[in-house]
Amino acid sequence: MGSAPDFHALLATAVDEARRGLAEGGIPIGAALFGPDGELLGAGRNRRVQDGDPSMHAETSAFRAAGRLRGYGRTTMVTTLSPCWYCSGLVRQFGIGRVVIGEARTFHGGHDWLAEHGVEIVLLDDPTCVSLMTDFIRDNPELWNEDIGE
After folding, report:
1. Residue 59 annotated in active site
2. pLDDT at residue 1 above 70?
């Protein structure tokens, strides 16, 4: 995969997306897909509320924004929150090689499963990501439970 990029710098793009989503009245989860040389291929945010589309998670949004690629093995998906099973499936389906996760305290998704199947996982435990989700969950428990399928 080449030399390791500055994961915190990459995370900043996803955090910006999460903040945009929150400002739009949505769930503050952001993601970005980067190429092997650290180039931004696509960024997105959870748009379930804004679009009325339950499938528009942050990772899905970033993936779709990147458009078609010949292969994804050398790409890095950066997300502010541990990916749910749906988004973990997207990573596996398309063979994304690395997932950088802002935090997994508020939600522990499928990243252990991804690691077991050869995906490089980088868990940053970023305090900004933790506070974004902690505040959101406290203030919007019904919306959060809807998002995670409870």
Report:
1. yes
2. no
